[in-house]
Amino acid sequence: MEVLKSGDSPALISNIEVMNLLRERAAKRAPDINDASDKSNIKLGPFQNRDWIETSVLSYLETSSCGGSDVKLDDMPELVERLQREPNSSTATDGYGLTNMETLQVLNHLPASPVELHLLIEDLENRPGFVGDSFKRGEEKQTEFLKLISKYSGKEVTAVDSQDREDDMEEE
User: Could you tell me where this protein is found in the cell (predicted)?
Assistant: First the structure.
């Protein structure tokens, strides 16, 4: 493995990138196993533990929220740029002003509901990219954000109805 970045801070990569890397590595090793005519005589070799760990991590990531997604690495830079761009009310394609860590959390979890969104982004209700001039407008901006993520992930947005929220408030 080659070190691509050196320095004090490590480079952070998303689960999607790790999953694609592990898939590539598994595909490179697959011909070695498939070429053997008698599978019982295959020697696992000195890297059997590494291969088992990589296979286990890959199967975990494939069952996680980013595993069933249709996100392609080629689309990620565009999404990351949009997530980190500072909000500007004069353009139709506003950014959201997320930090690097918040962006990584969003890419790893691909939120599909407002609840998930509030768990991933700190102080969401006061962030410029998510706040509107009214409560309803703020909810609309959050739904727009979830639809943006949905466009890249292929997951359906599960929005909470305003009526459900009002019913919950009345019960308290």
Answer: Nucleus
CB 99 within 8 A of CB 108: no
List all residues 6 or more positions away from 124 whose beta carbon is below 8 Å from its beta carbon: 117, 118, 130, 142
Q: How many CB atoms lie within 10 A of CB 107?
A: 24
Mark whether 133 and 151 lie in a shared domain: yes
Please indicate, yes or no, if residue 52 is contained in any of the structural domains.
yes
Query: Does residue 165 sit in helix, strand or coil?
Result: helix
- The answer on 101 and 145 residing in a single domain is yes
Instruction: Enter the pTM of the model.
Output: 0.73
Distance CA 103, CA 108 (A): 9
107 domain-assigned: yes
Query: CA 83, CA 74: separation in Å to the nearest integer?
Result: 16
Give the relative orientation of helices 48-63 and 15-35 as an angle to the nearest 10 degrees.
Answer: 130
Is position 124 within any domain? yes
Domain that holds residue 55: 13-33+47-64
